[in-house]
Amino acid sequence: MQRPVDFKLPHFFNYPPYFTLQPVRETREKQVQLWKELILDYCRSQKMYIISLEEDFPLFSNPKIERSLSYEAKEAFLAALVSEGRAEWVDKSHKKCLILWLRIQDWANYIVDFVKENGLEVTTIEDIRSGIETHGTEMSSYVVYKDEVSGVYDDWEECRRQVHHFSGNNYKGYTTRAEAEARYARYLAGERRERRRNQMKISFIAMMLYVMVV
User: Fold this and answer.
1) HEC sequence for the chain
2) Which pLDDT does position 52 carry in this prediction?
3) Structural domain tally of the chain?
4) CATH code where residue 142 lies
5) Residue 130 falls within a domain, yes or no?
6) Residue 51: pLDDT over 70
7) 161 and 79, same structural domain?
8) Are residues 144 and 86 located together in one domain of the fold?
9) What are phi and psi for residue 9, nearest 5 degrees?
């Protein structure tokens, strides 16, 4: 998994000692704090929520300096986030972690304020996340299905440029980029199946016409 080129990494990321748990308490506390901030910033910028200790994660290795975090180090940094309410283990074996770049209470306050500011009354999470009101907020990634350039967009203005002034456009907002990418992948798979069906129909019709003429 590659890191997005638009994410600016801090200076310590290129300093080898920070990829090894430091034995001195004061130094380790500083190290843990830096890694916590980096993980939260990265997940927030990329709208990522789940980190698995057993799967590749872009921040946990740096090929440039040939360094990778040990399993123990990754677990320590995530455990520190959990202890501060910025993450939660999603399994009993503590191998997958839900990253909360906003704490649960912060998310609750954010959603309540969002509902009030937009004059919404009886509503559901699905209504909130897919509605036009989420454009440009913490809760949105967008999939453009039909228009100028289809694909997944994190920025509403960029998405808007693809659908503005194009009749018959088809797009939708999603809470996370991962969900948006999954929905877009399913859409592309469906489009490929439809093209294959159309090609088969054309081939069949062409064959029938050939038989009739011959």
Assistant:
1) CCCCCCCCCCHHHHCHHHHCCCCCHHHHHHHHHHHHHHHHHHHHHHCCCEEECCCCCHHHEECCCCEECCHHHHHHHHHHHHHCCCEEECCCCCCEEEECCCCHHHHHHHHHHHHHHCCCCCCCHHHHHHCHHHCCCCCCEEEEEECCCCEEECCHHHHHHHHCCCCCCEEEEECCHHHHHHHHHHHHHHHHHHHHHHHHHHHHHHHHHHHHHC
2) 93
3) 2
4) 3.40.970.10
5) no
6) yes
7) no
8) no
9) -85, 145
Q: Across all residues in the chain, what is the average pLDDT? A: 77
Q: Which residue has the tokens 């455990």?
A: 79
pLDDT band, residue 167 (cuts 50/70/90): low
Largest distance between two CA atoms of the chain: 88
Check residue 189 and give its pLDDT. 77
18: in domain? yes
Asked if pLDDT for residue 171 goes beyond 70, the answer is no
- What is this structure's pTM? 0.56
